[in-house]
């Protein structure tokens, strides 16, 4: 009885806090429909918001460079340094282990020293990592360098989209935030393409270029106004917001909304990990964690990291296949960012997961035919078709949509803890898949892809049963519907 009374008191308290917040959101939605508030025309936006976004997404590009490095370099590194399959598997997968550590620590770092400070830390780790890889003479320095770039990658995965969302005007937020995912794909794709013509040591040096642009660019862009407001730095907050909105823009309304919102956040109870398993939060946590599980265990990082070897194993030119793979990934991701708010989240997930199943089955069939020496002439065509269908389908939905839904479904008072849990599951899955991929391929090449097909088929069922459509709904509406 006492527990029920305490829960009732907590619910009343939370409701009292949320009511003004929900009214504020409704007012903001009304402002958007009427065109009021912050200027929304192109003339009302300072060039600084675009330049700041460009600097930040250099971190996204660096993320992609780190992820794409191991695929075109596997054969050359193993030959030059005499690495065993197990040693190279450690090198390929330790990136995601570092990223797990980076993802866990990124929130506290970004809150303590700011979004720009967190990006500086991340950049320094990436620079140190690339240099260690470049000068490596054996497995140990190679792994240390890969671990360092993984840590930087993990920090970028959190702080870049958060920073962009905090600096962007509300009518540009979706488009500018989507550039994050697009630049990750660009980084991966460029690494794939130039990795076919550069040595593995020179390719490592190219990873320093986005680091240099980002590190220098941070001296010329403002800090996140919301972080400054949270730290009670009033003058710096107003100066940063004015700089981002242009010197002639009226920022008074937006500044007031930001300060009121932050004061509301600070009155909400601090959530702990165990709070996520309360009945009212369980469905949203299951959706967020489940989508991250299926995104990774469907095989994306194994295929991404070792795509060159997959093409070689199937008897197809690795350089041509990798280049086509890279271009397709960028094009489809760009199209997906345009249509996500038009067709909805669930349709994209359904189409994406279905394509992943078919892509895995085609690739699995090609390896089955090769192993049993059946119809060998069609094996390369089947393998290439399957892999390209796989990456195109992943880029169309399962790549970006789980992150979008995660940002929408968690109530604001558990968003930090729940988001960290979902991100940790994502990076753990990335590590597990990238580490086990070569061993699974040695066990059974076609069995590996049949396994991934089965997991992606379960993803279709999960989306149908658990995931709501969130297109065109206010965050509070989505969260109330999910969490009851």
From TrEMBL:
GO terms for molecular function: sugar transmembrane transporter activity. InterPro entries: MFS_dom, MFS_ERD6/Tret1-like, MFS_sugar_transport-like, MFS_trans_sf, MFS_Trehalose_Transporter, Sugar/inositol_transpt, Sugar_transporter_CS. GO terms for cellular component: membrane. The chain crosses the membrane at residues 47-70, 90-110, 117-136, 148-168, 175-194, 200-221, 285-308, 320-340, 347-369, 381-405, 417-437, 449-467. It comes from the Eukaryota. Pfam families: Sugar_tr (PF00083). Gene3D superfamilies: MFS general substrate transporter like domains. The keyword ATP-binding does not apply. It is a multi-pass membrane protein. Residues 48-471 form the Major facilitator superfamily (MFS) profile domain. Keywords: Membrane, Sugar transport, Transmembrane, Transmembrane helix, Transport. It is found in: Membrane. Belongs to the major facilitator superfamily. Sugar transporter (TC 2.A.1.1) family. This is Major facilitator superfamily (MFS) profile domain-containing protein.
